[in-house]
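Troubleshooting log. The previous run stalled partway through. Resubmitting the same two chains, unchanged.
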Amino acid sequence: MNLELLTKLTQAFGPSGYEDEIRALIQEHAAPWADELRTDPLGNLIVHHRGNGQGEKIVLAAHMDEIGVMVSHVDKEGYLRFTRIGGVYPLHCIGSRVRFANGTQGVIYLEHREDASTSPKLTQLYIDVGAASKDDAPVSVGAPAAFVRPLVQQGTRLISKTLDDRIGCYILLELLQQVQDSPHDLYLLFSTQEEVGLRGARTAAFSINPDLAIAVDVTGTGDTPKALPMAVALGDGPAIKVQDPGMIAHPKVRQLLVEAARKAEVPYQLEVLRGGTTDAAAMQLTRAGIPSGTLSIPCRYVHSPSEMVDSQDVENAIKLLTAALA
Amino acid sequence: MKREKLIEILQSLSDVMSTSGDESLMRQALRPLLAGHVDEMRVDSLGNLITLKKGTGESQLRVLVTAHIDEVGMIIVDHTTDGALKVRAVGGIDDRLLPGLNVCVGKEQLPGVMGVKAIHHSTAPERLRAIPIKDLSVDIGAKDKKEAQHLAPLGTRVTFSTRAHPLGELLAGKAFDDRAGCTALIALLHGEPFPFDLHGVFTVQEEVGLRGARVAGYALEPDVAFVLEGTIADDLPKKEDVSLTSEIGKGPVLTVMDHSYISAPWLLRHTVKLAEELGIPYQFKQPGIGGTDAGAIHLTRGGVPSLTLAVPCRYIHGPISLLKPEDLEATIDLTAAALRNLTAEQLATN
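Second attempt completed without errors. Output:
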């Protein structure tokens, strides 16, 4: 694992719609290995690696954006109220820190509640940036912020904010170096606004118009105390998606990934996810339809600031995709 | 355009019946207002009124500006044996506002009343509850089912019967969401040519899911889109120091992020910079509320950088909304400035 790269990727700023910083970082690392790079009207970074003319036109998508918050009100004492960017849950927020694009950090905390027996609502939380008054607040309404939490490696586990989906971005960047001799016409799509509705992938898939599309993203697991039953566990290999609420993976794409796992001799798991979806759901329905599937990295605590994956699953995903594209 | 003219247009458009999916009267009202000011005018398969105002030729940009011509209202779904009309909502209507209202039925604007039990017959607990729309009926004075069916067949639309009028320094009228945006778009089309061809589209079916804008965005393939709206002003006194969605009198409302889209950051910066330079007041809409045609347009084809600018209006989606003419003027001024200063270079570098 290139921990230095993954650290940079997980810590770069990029709430949905505000992906400039993370895009610049990915662009810098992809450029030496790409034939062509472009940024489209919605901010997607499209990295093209030409094939030999014999292969297929394939999109591999990982989203650059992360969940976050946006200031909706600054009160006269200088406390900020906020709304969610993507799936942000109040319980994950309390005590968390967020960082704004201008570097300002804030602590999220909770109003006093007489009845503490229920889960708090987002409207009962506020951000404290240490301001003395409204005029003293260093950010204003409309400012986006991302959660703050460093990357740590512990044994084979990796723990950080935003592994959803910077781990996918990492995999695509590593993969790009491995597939330099691929016969296929490859488009690595680092997509925007996935967390707010798969928006970037939808327009990018339209303009690329591929023969086949694969999203690389995280998925949930069933291996934690009293977890919702799910036959996916950390460390048991990358998960080949069968379906989620947004998509039924195309059997051809699923089979391609299964055969690649066998060829690369890496373990894999089949995945049926009950909540959530990936960019593949949007790409699949583009134009006249694009056969699509997803390779998932099992991840605990998705959308909390401390997401956890296994580095072996990551390494195996790179091997699997390399074999699939050979 | 002079304020008196803007007010005259807004008031006349406010009075037009044009519920989602049945917008012919708005198209009819718009044609004479646009004639001579645009180079092309056509209606597409969903009913969008699509205009083209040719530019000076300095720029090859394709720019789309939209405002929606539909409004929330009701549709007749059944007739009772005693000649009353049963209705359902078209778009987002608050059931609490309906009992006892004057309404207009059908394109002939038949007067009707939203029937309600007299206070003498209602109980105290009943009076504290909102009556769901399915339990209400519209009374047009028909003597029986047959007459009701004849006068107002199934599918006939029902709207608020409000006539627009001044209210102190404000204007009152129905459907300022989005007749305010329509008025702003008309004013832009009446102005000097822009450096580029401007595609001004009066969209249909926004209130039921941004439907017209979606196909118009696909057909026109713009490089950039602006959406003109009338949006929620909730500036009445509040007990607590909490978010306002927007306030009237504080200028155009720019949407950074709502449920339907995130504005292109560079387009927002461009517009804010011009507002600051020109001294045009502006405000940001409370993020995370509502959605507009920009939600559909920005996702068409390969993606379209988009921005929504709105006139703040109190009590939208109700029988009477209020706005301040200065806000409408400032919205037109800021949109015009944002358009006139758009360059292809901005698009290429962002």
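Takeaways: DSSP finds ten helices and 17 strands in chain B. Residues 172 and 322 of chain B are 5 Å apart (CA to CA).
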